[in-house]
Design goal:
The chain is of the alpha/beta class and 289 residues long. It has 8 helices and 12 strands. Bound molecules: zinc ion.
Length: 289
Amino acid sequence: MRQITAIVSVGLFVALFLPNASPQGSPDWTEPFPPFRIAGNLYYVGSKGLANYLIATQQGNILINSDLEANVPLIEASIGKLGFKLADTKILLISHAHWDHDAGSAKIKELTGATYMVMNADVPVVESGGKTDFQYSRPEFLYPPTKVDRVLHDGDEVRLGGTALVAHLTPGHTKGCTTWTMKVTDAGRTYNVVIVGSPNVNPGYQLVHNQIYPQIAEDYERMWRVLKSLPCDIFLGAHGGYFGMEEKYALLKSGGVNPFADPDGYKKFVTQKEQEFRVELAKQQLTSK
Ligand SMILES: [Zn+2]
């Protein structure tokens, strides 16, 4: 009995703390969340656990992330509640080529005819439906392969209807992990927006002697340099948990200063994630000797 309790406890621990280790992830990935305007023409249209952003312009809209296939109807409903249409999506972008951010891309392309733009190093993963991912190539993590229409390179701009986003290569979590930046103007003030791709070292990631991804640690180092160099007022990311989305949404509802303008929160987040990386790297270097 004690053994069973122990097994259940371990299972529970894995389910609670290692959400990225299973294709279904955590239950909040598919839990609806009220859509809302973050600032200017930038809107949150994601679920509770998976972040999606809509950038609305006079010439159609840009959508960041397609999530799990199961999330596509949620995204469509969120966009609809804000008075926009999924069908008006002209450009589809992603944070990085993991199924929780890109498995719904084939469906969204089919529904909208959007131009799919992906960072070069993530393109083979997207176009193979996850098969060439260095960590998650097992069948349960695969999804419909999706043709990329424009291959992006570090520093490339994506423009539509007067809005410009810049794609910053922030690799490590995936080889083409992308942090998006843009400027939004709201109530006469212009904000620098940063949408972090992912700074996480997932469970099982091999940072030393990784045969499939030898430069993984150097790539993470590059990411810290890039993230620390980006001017940030409005701090966002691929999961709401990065930037305290739920708490900030509640504050937004109560009025006052825009809680998503959080430059200190951004700096703290990057510092903390870099520390976590250094601890894990040191641990792996020690045990690999
Ligand atoms: Zn990921």
